[in-house]
Amino acid sequence: MSSIDLDVVILAAGQGTRMRSSTPKVLHTLAGRSLLQHVIDTAETLTARNVAVVVGHQADTVQGSIDADVRWVQQPEQLGTGHAVQLAMSQLPGDGVVVVLYGDVPLISVQVLTNAIESAKEGSVGLVVADFADPAELGRIVRNEAGEIQRIVEFKDADQQERSITEINSGILAVPGAHLQEWLGRLKPNNKQGEYYLTDIIAMAVADGVAVEGVMAHTPEEVAGINDRVQLAALERYYQQREAERLMRAGVTIADPTRLDIRGSVEAGEDCFLDVNVVLQGKVVLGKGVRIGPGSVVTDAQIGDFTEVHAHTLIEDASIAAHVSVGPFARVRPGSVFAEGVRIGNFVETKKAQLGAGSKANHLAYLGDTVIGEACNVGAGSVTCNYDGVNKHSTNIGDNVFVGTNSTLVAPLDIHDGAFVAAGSTVTSTVDKDDLAVGRGKQRNIKGWVRPDKRKE
Ligand code: UD1
Ligand code: CA
Q1: Is the pLDDT of residue 375 over 80?
Q2: How far apart are CA 345 and CA 241, in angstroms?
Q3: 16 within ligand 1 shell (Cβ under 6 A)
Q4: Cβ within 8 Å of residue 300, ≥6 positions away
Q5: pLDDT band per the 50, 70, 90 thresholds, residue 1
Q6: Which comes out higher in pLDDT, residue 332 or 4?
Q7: What is the Å distance from ligand 2's center to 103 Cα?
């Protein structure tokens, strides 16, 4: 984009009554991110010098939940979209191009915005419009016989003939800042709602001989505003379908695109397979040929080529190498790092656990705060006792260690290469290289023992 400075104003002061929620509307989430965060993230890709967000209802909550470098503008009383932009402009330079976005229109595309911005750079107003079969109560675009945009009429102020127009105002526009400042100063709340309408600047532009270019939205969804939870769910499904299609085009097989949820960014190599009811959250990077079984939830993880995650497995904040097998019913918690060929089986939980190449814990184990070398085997029911009630301690296990079934490894503990822990042991002190540790009571058998009889009442 050329060198005209860009300022973005995002309107987010409204209450959103129809959500029927104690959470402000713009903080409801779509694909795991708040509506407002989507808009801010899009604004940030435009490389604007300022992103100003106008807040009013529950302003503190809204501000507190957004993690971005934006300028907050307070609008304690919502006197209309024009008033909101006025307040923002009183804090912005106003010499470049100004883009107005809505905090409840989360999926506006960068391409359409770029088109609108281009119009504004050439001195026109770039107004994002769409054609809706059912335009409901949206503002209507009034054109003259030559097809030029003349003004916007709000539904509540429109007559029967104007209401029959199907071309609508998305509310999103790009305007040369100097014009905008001047037009905003002339707004009057002379309408049914007694509000300062931003939309009135369109007729002013026409009167001042400034061209208004209608920039057609590519999809109805990108200009869809969220007013209630039904609309939110519909847009969520649209978003999910789009993400699923993107992955399928990149070579991922999806068992059922309507039963995959992506709440973050996913990169996947060719020939991955995602089974039904998989949820991928945060930043997920899959190699090629990765298979994720039904009902699994993967959050902020990197998974190597041909690794298989079996059904109903939870993975969070983990780094998993190639040719690993995890699950079914495994819980891989933050700080888990698995090298190539590791096997984590059913009902195994790991946390801050590094496992070297080829090591296995196939059934019912807890491995926390531990570094385990290569080619180890951790038997069923084995547990690292990493917590003494006050502090966490670590367990260090070398290569080729065999931990027998139902062993209790009391940390801090070192078990060196080639050591063998007998099944059922409670291990509290260092096991040296190649040693056998037996930490259990000796079995006694009592000859001729008589079982108790049922007592008579
Ligand atoms: C507005 C447009 C309408 C357009 C529709 C698209 C006006 C007058 N009308 O109508 O032409 O078709 O959007 O969705 O602009 N807001 C503030 N402060 C205010 C008023 C609103 O921040 O004082 C924010 C709201 O939080 C919301 C956005 O601006 O994010 C739109 O406001 P809303 O009241 O929904 O406008 P509409 O009446 O739907
Ligand atoms: Ca609205």
Answers
A1: yes
A2: 32
A3: no
A4: 264, 281, 282, 283, 284, 316, 317, 318
A5: very low
A6: 332
A7: 10
Name the residue among 420, 423, 425, 392 with its Cα closest to residue 409.
425
Per-residue tokens: 72: 């907050």
DSSP letter string, 281-319: EEEEEE-SS-EE-TT-EEEEEEE-TT-EE-SS-EEEEEE
Four-point Cα dihedral 101, 107, 108, 109, nearest 10: 140
Phi, psi of 146 (to 5 degrees): -80, 0
| CA nearest ligand 1 atom 13, residue | 171
CA of 168 to the centre of ligand 2 (A): 12
User: For residue 106, is it left (φ>0), alpha (ψ between -120 and 50) or beta?
Assistant: alpha
Q: What gap in Å lies between CA 107 and CA 30, rounded to an integer?
A: 10
Q: Is the CB of 281 under 6 A from ligand 1?
A: no
Rounded CA separation 439/426 (Å): 5
Q: What are phi and psi of 145, to 5 degrees?
A: -65, -25
Q: Is the pLDDT of residue 24 over 50?
A: yes
What contacts 13, CB < 8 A, 6 or more positions away?
Answer: 54, 55, 56, 57, 59, 75, 78, 84
Name the pLDDT band for 456 (thresholds 50, 70, 90). Answer: confident
Which among 4, 183, 214, 234 has a CA at the least distance from the CA of 81?
183
Does ligand 1 have an atom closer than 6 angstroms to the CB of 11?
A: yes
Q: How many CB atoms lie within 10 A of CB 366?
A: 21
Positive or negative, the CA dihedral 335, 341, 342, 343 is positive
Q: Is the pLDDT of residue 3 over 80?
A: no
Residue 363 a catalytic site member? yes
CA distance 20 to 316: 32
Handedness of CA 169, 171, 177, 181 (dihedral sign): positive
What's the whole-number mean pLDDT along residues 156-179? 97
Segment 415-422 shows an average pLDDT of 98
For strands 308-309 and 325-326, give the pairing: parallel
